[in-house]
Queue: 3 jobs
Job 1
Amino acid sequence: MKRFAGLFNAIDQSTKTTVKVAALAEYFHEATEQDRIWTIAIFSGRRPKRAVTTTRLREWAAEVAGIPLWLFEDAYPIVGDLAETIALVLPPAETVSDHGLSYWIDMLRALPQVEEDARKQAVLDAWNSLDPTQRFLFNKLITGGFRIGVSQKLMTRALARATGRDEPEMAHRLMGDWDPAQVTWQALIEAEDPAANASRPYPFYLAYALDAAPDDLGPPVAWQAEWKWDGIRGQLIVRAGEHYVWSRGEELMTDRFPELARARDFIPDGTVLDGELLAWGDMAPQNFNALQKRIGRKTVPRKLLQEAPVILYAYDLLEWQGEDLRHNPLADRRAILEDLCMGLPPDAPVKLSPTIDFDSWVALADIRTAAREAQAEGLMLKRKISPYLTGRKKGDWWKWKLDPLTIDAVMIYAQSGHGRRANLFTDFTFAVWNGNDLVPFTKAYSGLTDAEFRQITAWVKKNTLERFGPVRSVTPHHVFEIAFEGIQASPRHKSGVALRFPRMARWRQDKPVQEANSLADLNEMLEIYG
């Protein structure tokens, strides 16, 4: 654990990518193989499940620290992080442990199978043998909330340096459904056949946002334009007689979209398609609201399969006849993809996402205005000669999204944030007018600067009407412009609507509360965009 704590400190105390990469590379050289595997797993989101409830941890920490629970509970929101609060209140350790990261993870993974008294004693023994930083990391692991500022790209770069292999190869090896408790360093990192796992997807190529018109991108003839679909980015893999569906977030979603199983009847073995998972009806994509009914369901009832069938709208071909095509130009990959899709029957669960013909950037800008009518978020621009790269690379792929929808709303509730913003009110509930009443309709917690959050925090403290645990009801006074990507009917909400990706676009200190928008305005937007 000492070596892992040293790695954490090196990463946490620097903002320089070169320093973080060097620290990781050195760690991968020195740590045991199983510690390396678990470090990769933790940094890529494969954290062990929570072994003890946070309620028990707070009780045990207060008991060991010799302080009343209410005092611990008061300190928690001030610190803003449970793991750190526990590490701060505990007395100094009486012993020293030389155990590595994998030892502690194995211990945590075994805790759910033992009685609570034994579970408590194991946690207390750990606290009594770890220094403050190690305790903090142990607490993060035990709560299942471990997060650190290491991107997948940064980690693959460090692995490439430590092993002498190419970065794209490292990124590919880390994709897929591998279990840190079962896989070995040799199998995951060093084996000569990283594609032996038939289900393994390729790392996704991500586009940069285009903030202005694309006039500076050069001649339009060098670019391919497509709709930016409002669905779930995914890869469909057909290998070894099986099919697999992966989301961009590296989640295996095969069972959630059973209609894609028929792809094996039409798509040849050794094929990997990149595209958008969309609800499909009336020979066209449906809006995201239709797809949302399917999200989060591991089993889908027959009625829902009929109401919101899902297809893969394919727009790229990453593997064909078992050959990796990612280094080929987009135009070449697209030509093979079009030939493949041309031979598919009309009822196939895979369809070709069309390109958009245009002869000037002005003409394309006009086409972009119709994106919402096409159930899209905007446009994608891809250089025709571009390879399929790994991660977010600037230059060849751009997303040109529509401006968000906006509405002016009144802040009526405020709640403290977390982490470094634990002392600030950052999470707000907003309302619109319905006659003379304010009806809450959404929450938002991003979009303001730290200075603005400090300013609104001072105001909240002076204008609190009531308290409901961590939430404060405040005087209706401040108007904020709320930006969002979509709107849908929602019987679960008092307002009858729900917003997609709401955030604070502006603090309208120039606007009186009486001029905020109304529920009728929201319902009008629902009729147009819902």
Job 2
Amino acid sequence: MKKFKRIRDKITLHPMMAFIFLSAFVILLSGILDVFDASVTYNKVNIKTGNYQPTLVTVESLLNLSGIKYIFSNTVSNFVSFAPLSMLLITLIGIGIMDKSGFLDTLFFVLTKKMPKTAVTYVFSLICVLATIAGDLSFIILIPLAALLFKYGKRNPEVGIILAFASISLGNGINLFISSTDSSLITITESAARIITTGYKVNTFCYLFIMVAATLIGCAIITYITEKIIAPKMGKYEETEEIVTDKEKLTKREWRGLLFALTGAVIYLVVFIYNIIPFVPLGGNLIDYSQARYIDKLFGYDSFFNHGFVFVVTFLFFLVGLLYAFGIKSINNHRDICNYLSHSLDEIGKVIILIFFASMFISLLKYTNIGSLITASISNIIPSIKFGGIPLIILIMILTMITTIFQPGYVARWSIMSSTVVPQMMTAGFTPEFAQLVFSASSSIIYGLTPVMAYFVIYISYMEKYDKDGVSVIKCIRHQIPYAISILGMWILLLIVWYIVGIPLGISTLPTI
């Protein structure tokens, strides 16, 4: 067994090499598909006219002159503009000062000292699911915090990373609150539904009831898998630095620091919350009133939070970390502040290089249109399906999961698939809301299993940071498979029960027409 493990470790690719080989494969595949003139025409719903618009998808080769120019001209710019990179670096500044000052150690001690491990896991999973209302920023914030939460709780930080990534991936298909992505999907769904029913309108709270069930059950499933499968398999974590102490209670300085930090956080949050409440005196200054839905007022394309939310969160972390440090009197001069700020950026070089190769792979795949080609090809299969009911639900789930592997972005993929999925399911007696739910649920199952997803590299980077034996793309995916299989089973059961019994999905919304 040990011999097999040594052989496996030797042939296991480092994530950097994996992304290099994936990039080379995309380049080669694009050239082959271009030789055979691979293309697909699909019907896309024009949101303005409400009619079908034939759209041609062709493969862009990376082996011709234009493709080679693109590789050399855009690789650097794509890396610089790669959202996970900038978001991670900025957020780590705030997390670094919270960690270095001791605020996180103290906060986690207070919050978890009387809670069973299972309860901590469940609550954190629930936080991760709910945090997806802020979009993909939740990957950047909660994965490093999960590692520190488990480390300070004398548990393996890798377990926390795996838990956070699985929960956030699940949360992209399950949430009690509508997110900006959900809002975009609803707009596309309405356009597709109007092919069958003129003027169809989707209720904002159309998924409230089933989402409550999915959130509570999903987090329980994730907690069980984490505690019974992942944690025993990962084993104990041997800390190289003895920074975790066996304290029984907080000192007076720590209580003072916590009081300073939490007071500053409350004041900061009250000011911002007041400024996102519309139509109040001197408030509501940070929302975009040109949007119809409240979530779009907050996170719409031109909103303040869409452009500034990363810094809003980072400044909050900076504030509480700094106030805590002042409270315990651990900062003597401005140099101490600078050292605190750079704490989380120490030894970040390997992460940046890994992100570079991941950004190259993702940008090359996007340029070739291979993901869109596969999605459109599968979408064109759907109108030929001749059955309905439960078999149709399961088949749509399978096709959606396949497309997620190659094109994980929800909005871009739904803009292609909705023109066939929604009319097909409406013809079979399902509501457009149920069709969108099947799509979102199926996507969330595979979302954490594909390296094409931009934030998968953040997951790998932190696993690489804490795994003493080294990680690989396959190894990281393998950790997520038990979650994916279990959540798939949960969603199949929920969707079938809701469909057969006829339970409302949400307010004034049923599974069937």
Job 3
Amino acid sequence: MKQHVEYEKRKYVIIASAVLIVAVFIARLSVLQLMTEEYIDKADSNAFLHSLQYPARGAIYDRSGELVVFDEPSYDITFIPNEITQLDTLDFCTALNISKDQFLRRMDDIKDRKKNLGYSRYTQQVFMTQLSQEETGVFQEKLFKFPGFSIQRRSVRKYNFSSAAHLLGNVAEVSPKELEDDDYYVRGDLIGKQGIEKSYEKYLRGVKGVEILLRDAHGRIQGHYLDGELDTPAVPGKNLTLSIDMKLQMLGERLMQGKIGAIVAIEPKTGEVLCMVSAPSFDPKLLNGRMRGQNHLELSKDNRKPLLNRAIMGTYPPGSTFKTAQALTFLEEEVIDPETTLYPCYHGFVFGGLRVGCHGHGSPLSLIPALATSCNGYFCWGLYRMLGNDKYQNPQEALTAWKNHMVDQGFGYKLGTDLPGEQRGFIPNSDYYTSALGTRWNGLSIISIAIGQGEILATPLQIANLGATIANRGYFYTPHVVREIEDTPLDSIYVTPRQTNIERRHYDDVVQGMRMAVLGGTCRSLNGILPGVEVCGKTGTAQNRGKDHSAFMGFAPMNDPEIAIAVYVENGGFGATFGVPIGGIMMDMYLHGELSPSNEALAERISNQTIYYGDEVR
């Protein structure tokens, strides 16, 4: 009986063991067939080849319909690692005109799973990108010798102009971080890196397609799977029309040769940027194709910083162009009215031992002639009165009100333009001065901000936007360089006006001051550059450790404004030296479509002038 029980127990142990072994085999087979991507990839790649079809990237046109950027065919060399057999490395390298060391380094990079996320021996990898048709021709003839390799048609950006590099931007191979952030891309894909190419990437790139090709046991293509029923065609990227006038852009770059600074022109009625010049610049073709990395390195070593878009990234003291914003603030706060005279200008603002210098002119002045002559004394007294105004409990409260007006006019924060990298500039608040000067500061402590100096910083885009706001008598549209996206409306931020909290009547007074500056003040040379056009302007001479910066802000015509412009030339001296003539020439080109003979001669003289400062020619 005892022996019978032991046999019964053994039977159950044997049955349980058999069941366990079968369960383990089933589980393992399930994992291999259903969960292990390696085997799925291997099985799939044996039967099918998923061939990505890359869409044409959207073209870019200027405001007149001139083609600026477009696609040209290029080719990638791709391969499936598991299918490479008996590769003649020397012959392969000769066909692509590369060295064996280059070949080995590239293969190591591709197999590095930290650099190449999702690497698999059974999926297509990119070996070499952006080959021309000529470069691909030799390899095509020998392709049959290199099993596992194939040629994939792509495209590369081409430029019709050697201008507008900063705003157009460029494309380059996607980075590991960008691969992580967006699953649209695979290693070797191109992505917008700067400018319009970056900020409008999702419109320009289009949608990839896929062809599913059937292969036999030897890996040979037998045609489309299910006669292409499951193929998806690529969808081309959307075309963009810029607000930029390329004739105006090229003229601006010509005028800024040998100089450092920026020009920004805006159409006041729409906020469309008509030109955006940053100097020095470079040919956009330099950052295109396989030489991009080397050229970028060379440009980054240049101490003039040609890669910096000074129009939106350069922050400068706006100098006397800022007096227009001060005037509007003082009028709104009832510190002054148009007839107010603020003490005689003794060649500047003088209070005790403090002095802010000014050039000689008649005195005392009311607001409009003070703007026309750019009287430092007038605006220093204006700020002093505002910060000591009985309307406010203390200078800190008054400065808060002052800053709010400046922010409302587009200073101190990013405007929100459609280009990456915009800087905010700087408008100080009371906490800033309390931290820097203690609690007992007053208007005299910070008087330099009255004339756009001291801690005040603005971008050329912000200064041009101030001109557009004054031209519109109190509102502006967020400046933008894309006028139209194919079949897609612009973001509402670019078509919605932004109203300031300053009454229109105060703008009329400032416009009169800017007009008087042209008729008989600091901008009077504009009368010869733009005869018959009612131009309004304001010069700026921004103090600097070296030679002063030359600035100008203006618009035309006065009562039906078509263009507002800001010019900023580092170390250019008085605003009337470079800022005014450059601004006038640019307005002449935009308003009339060509330069008068005298303005063409003036443009040639200016373009041939190089600014010297420090111990170097920059």
